[in-house]
TrEMBL record:
Keyword annotations: DNA recombination, DNA-binding
Coiled coil regions, renumbered to chain: none
Protein name as annotated: Integrase catalytic domain-containing protein
Family the entry assigns: Belongs to the 'phage' integrase family.
Annotated transmembrane regions: none
Signal sequence bounds: none
Domain of life: Bacteria
Alphabetical list of CDD domains matching this protein: INTN1_C_like
Organism: Phocaeicola intestinalis
Domain Tyr recombinase: 250-441
Length: 444
């Protein structure tokens, strides 16, 4: 069997406008069948020997010549691959038409499968359509970028997976386990496969992720899959056989009022910038807000002797105005910075603020040993307080000390902005050492 391409039309030597249809011919013994294609060429440019353009055709670009030559070869290859002794002229015409118009011959299901959005496309749709606060959207986008890097990682490292794309219909519990490994060890892959991170970068280089962080990441991925299932975008539920355990947290660490006052009264005049950040930290312990809410505050947030704000975390979900009356210490701090323009207080970046807090604790002598859970191993470790101090410790200090005084979660959550039934808030209810002593005395 031999397949060739040919044209039937000729043109005068200087004719550059005529166009000839390219035909295909199949000969096998006595069989000789022909069919027209939709490919065309000027007769003076055709080379029957090369089955395409002549080598030297000045008026045609190399790209156009190569494109037509490739199409001719594609059809010839199709003929050679699909020919059987029963093939006839109708078969040849249909084969060529199918090459030019493949969708004419596809079922509705095949077309839908080809046009089906892949997982990362659906993830973008999820971020638009699913009701999420801007803070949560930001967290989900981190997950989305990591999943995109996972695709590149699989293509680069798995045999036979050069075209790997995450498909919401085909993700299995085994896929999730492999994804977990990538999320957990991404900080190592960053060094082994730098091109992945050049393609989809982050502001900060990947750091080791602890168990709680991994649980949080995969809880978000599970939320996405449930959204796809609920919206009939997939029937796949891979998390049904991929259980996610609960996050494990230690007792919230906070400083008592004596330690807070030691920091407030410490002489930091030798380091003026630390002195300013100390005031900001103490102010945060007196109003109990998250650092993201603190940094958005201006003098307009001070209303009739209280600070009023809508939490950024819940702003778009169920916005509630939190109002915290200012005590004398808080008013004294605001008075110190009454001439500061713009934001409520002279804030620096959150990262530098956290670094300053650790230095402030150490210089103030607030260095008692505390027991915390290591975020990576989840084992108990002992550390001096100044090593674990951060902006969130200010919020915990506000909540913990008020709860010790009133022991009424409804009153405390009204000031802290925690919603009813919050798991995070329940951890603040741990019975402190003084309360334990009082309970033991009941046995005397």
């Amino acid at each position: 069997m031999k397949a060739t391409a040919f044209i039937r039309k000729t043109a005068s030597k200087n004719d550059t406008n005529s166009v000839a249809t390219i035909y295909f011919r199949l000969r096998d013994g006595k069989k000789d069948i022909k069919a027209a294609s939709e490919l065309t060429i000027n007769p003076n440019h055709w080379s029957s020997e090369k089955q395409g353009y002549k080598d030297r055709v000045a008026l045609v670009s190399e790209e156009k010549k190569q494109a037509l030559n490739n199409e001719v070869q594609n059809i010839l290859n199709l003929i050679n691959q699909n020919y059987t002794p029963e093939s006839d002229s109708e078969w040849l015409s249909t084969l060529i038409d199918k090459y030019h118009h493949p969708n004419r011959y596809k079922t509705k299901e095949e077309i839908e499968a080809e046009n089906k959005p892949m997982l990362l496309e659906l993830f973008s749709e999820f971020l638009v359509k699913h009701k999420l606060s801007e803070v949560r959207k930001k967290n989900f986008r981190v997950i989305q970028r990591t999943l995109a890097r996972y695709e590149l990682y699989v293509r680069a490292t798995k045999k036979g997976q050069k075209d790997f794309i995450l498909d919401v219909d085909t993700v299995t519990p085994e896929t999730l386990r492999d994804m977990w490994d990538f999320f957990e060890n991404e900080y190592q892959y960053y060094e082994l496969y730098p091109s992945i991170y050049e393609t989809i970068p982050e502001k900060r280089t990947p750091q080791p992720r602890g168990k709680n962080t991994l649980i949080d990441c995969f809880s978000r991925i599970r939320t996405f899959f449930l959204w796809c299932f609920d919206n009939k975008l997939t029937a796949n539920r891979p998390f049904d056989k991929f259980p996610i355990e609960e996050c494990k947290y230690g007792t919230p660490i906070y400083i008592n009022l004596e330690e807070r006052d030691r920091i407030f009264n410490a002489d930091l005049s030798a380091t003026p910038q630390l002195e300013i950040q100390r005031d900001i930290f103490i102010f945060q312990t007196l109003i109990g807000c998250r650092v993201s809410d603190l940094y958005r505050m201006t003098k307009l947030n001070i209303v009739n002797g209280a600070v009023e704000y809508i939490q950024k975390k819940t702003k778009e979900g169920n916005p509630v105005t939190v109002r915290v009356p200012l005590n004398d210490k808080a008013k004294e701090i605001l008075e110190r910075y009454k001439d500061h323009e713009g934001k409520l207080l002279p804030f620096i970046s959150e990262q530098k603020y956290n670094e300053a807090i650790k230095k402030i604790f150490k210089l103030s002598g607030v260095d008692r040993i505390v027991t915390i859970l290591d975020p990576l191993t989840r084992d108990e470790v002992k550390k001096p307080l100044y090593e674990v101090a951060s902006s969130h410790l200010a919020r915990r200090t506000f909540i913990g000390n008020i709860y010790k005084k009133v022991k009424d979660p409804n009153l405390v959550s009204a000031l802290s902005g925690h919603k009813e039934g919050s798991k995070a808030f329940r951890r603040y209810r741990d019975i402190d050492e003084e309360m334990k002593k009082d309970l033991v005395k009941l046995l005397d």
